[in-house]
Amino acid sequence: MTDIRIVPAADFGGACLEALQEAGARSRSITVGLPTGSTPIALYAEMASVAAAGNLDISGWRPFAIDEYGGARLHPCSNRRFFERHWESISGAPEVEQFDPEAPDLEAEARRMREAIDAAGGLDIALLGIGLNGHVAFNEPGSAAGSTVRRVDLSEASRESARACWGDETPAWGLTLGLRELFSAETVIIMAHGAAKADIVARAIDGPETVHVPASLSRRSARAIWVLDEAAASRLKR
Ligand code: GLP
Hints:
single chain, 3-stranded antiparallel sheet, 17% strand, binds 2-amino-2-deoxy-6-O-phosphono-alpha-D-glucopyranose, 7 helices
């Protein structure tokens, strides 16, 4: 089942939080995959302000980072640093389980994350952004629906986006949860804002279901919620 929610840009963070709370209402101790990037910043800021007012308690959540760059663990552009800035400012936010890109054995590191998620019973919620090429986490176009946690080479498009922060140190690879972990979540929430995402959002929702647009495979999930601002939704058929 796919649910598409379109809101004015000013309401984007609030609408993302509403979808998240709805999906997580079942239990206090949900497992949730968390994205980085520009898209979730409004959501995390909204969570920080609602939690500060005492109206949000996520202390029982078990959060997992959905991906990480293959660079220095404490590089200012790493996802680990992103969570320090944007997630840890939410009052009561539990620590995010992170990838270690400096682990000596990356296969073992991927296995560690896979086993941690499996042991938690899988993800209840996969909260996702979408890349300009349709990637989710670092599952680049061509990723198999059954792909699992692994090291991946980044596409040129992803490296180009990353260059804005990483500059000359832009990583060539990353670590990511696979489409298997993400799209087998009980609820998949994909967020997109801004006109730059309008084309890829339309391809993912209205185009064919294809590995060339990994986000289009979310249609196979039990429940997928798209939260879009009006600009990101502007090329949809409906
Ligand atoms: C990045 C990340 C994704 C993220 C996406 C969109 O490369 N690997 O997890 O969702 O691209 O980023 P943004 O929200 O900045 O557009």
